[in-house]
Write a structure and sequence with these properties.
Elements: H1 19-25, E1 27-38, E2 45-56, E3 60-64, H2 71-78, E4 86-91, E5 94-95, H3 101-111, E6 112-116, H4 127-131, H5 133-137, H6 144-156, H7 172-184, E7 190-194, H8 202-219, E8 223-226, H9 230-233, E9 238-243, E10 246-252, H10 260-274
Parallel strand pairs: 3-8, 3-9, 6-7, 7-8
Antiparallel strand pairs: 1-2, 1-4, 4-5, 9-10
Helix pairs in contact: 7-8
The structure holds adenosine-5'-triphosphate.
Length: 275
């Protein structure tokens, strides 16, 4: 039997297993009673207020909410970039709340992936070198198995033939696919995508979001998507709405009817009106 290109520490789900079934078994990240208070006295801001949230493994979860509602703060505390004032955060089985900076840096490097609006590719490096950069940063070369996984990812993302190009030789949609491949290269437990389609036209946005969703299903990858865009969020399995630092709604996309983007847009409008 030929060697699987997918590293074996995580099993590949069969397509028959729906994200919802996987979710029932596994939690990729958890916030328990998390509050974040910035400043003191009169200038104090309660950015997060007693959040309890499980991010289900192998699913695409969108975080939405009005401007200033706490979305970025929630992403930052989950990623260990900011510490909660109260409560606890875990990634997989690891409680990260009290980890020191070195341990958090290692955790981010090995267990988390990031995709940003601005792509953040290194302009002087080829596509392949950009995608394998996480291994370099971890002080090692990818193994043959890992390299095969990277090539499978590039192929799956439709950019396999572009591996020796530089970022400026790619379209925006292609650059974002490279950023997604880089985020997934080390098979992280969790990928954060922060407004990943903010710089893309609507066709490229649809393609990139469709790929992100398909990758969660095919490889049981967990992705958290932070976005203002109801169309982007409509690709998610589940949408969490934050308002004033609290979870205002927790919605399954299967329950959103025939026009999910419209339904999400209505929820956001209501939250903005009552803000
Ligand atoms: N470093 C900080 N110091 C003080 N207040 C902060 C800090 N970071 C965020 N805040 C405040 O916390 C609240 C939540 O901010 P956050 O950036 O998480 O919101 P957001 O939902 O991501 O907003 P946006 O959609 O506009 O990016 C806001 O009132 C913001 O002003």
């Amino acid at each position: 039997m030929s060697e699987s290109p997918i590293p074996t520490h995580r099993s590949t789900p069969t397509p028959a297993i729906a994200a919802r079934d996987i979710a029932a078994r596994d939690i990729a990240a958890r916030a328990v009673g998390v509050s974040k208070i910035y400043g003191t006295g009169e200038s104090q801001t309660r950015a997060l207020d007693n959040i309890d949230l499980d991010i289900e493994a192998g699913s695409l979860t969108a975080i939405m909410g009005p401007s200033g509602s706490g979305k970025s703060t929630l992403m930052h505390v989950f990623a260990g970039l900011d510490s909660p004032t109260h409560g606890r955060i875990s990634i997989g089985d690891t409680d990260i709340t009290d980890l020191d900076d070195n341990a958090l840096t290692l955790l981010r490097r090995r267990s988390l992936g990031f995709v940003f609006q601005a792509f953040n590719l290194v302009p002087t490096l080829s596509v392949m070198s950009n995608v394998t950069l996480p291994f370099e940063l971890d002080g090692r070369r990818p193994s043959a198995l890992e390299l095969a996984w990277v090539r499978e990812l590039l192929g799956r993302l439709g950019i396999g033939m572009l591996e020796s190009r530089r970022p400026h030789e790619l379209s925006g949609g292609q650059q974002q696919r490279v950023a997604i491949a880089r985020a997934l290269a080390m098979r992280p437990q969790l990928v954060f995508a922060d407004e990943p389609t903010g710089n893309l036209d609507s066709k490229s946005s649809r393609e990139v979001l469709g790929l992100l969703r398909d990758l969660t299903r095919e490889y049981q990858q967990t992705v958290v998507l932070v976005t203002h865009d109801p169309v982007a969020a409509s690709h998610a399995d589940r949408v969490i709405f934050i308002a004033d630092g609290s979870i205002a709604h927790d919605v399954r996309s299967v329950d959103l009817g025939a026009e999910p983007a419209k339904a999400l847009s209505d929820i956001i409008l209501n939250l903005e009106v009552s803000a």
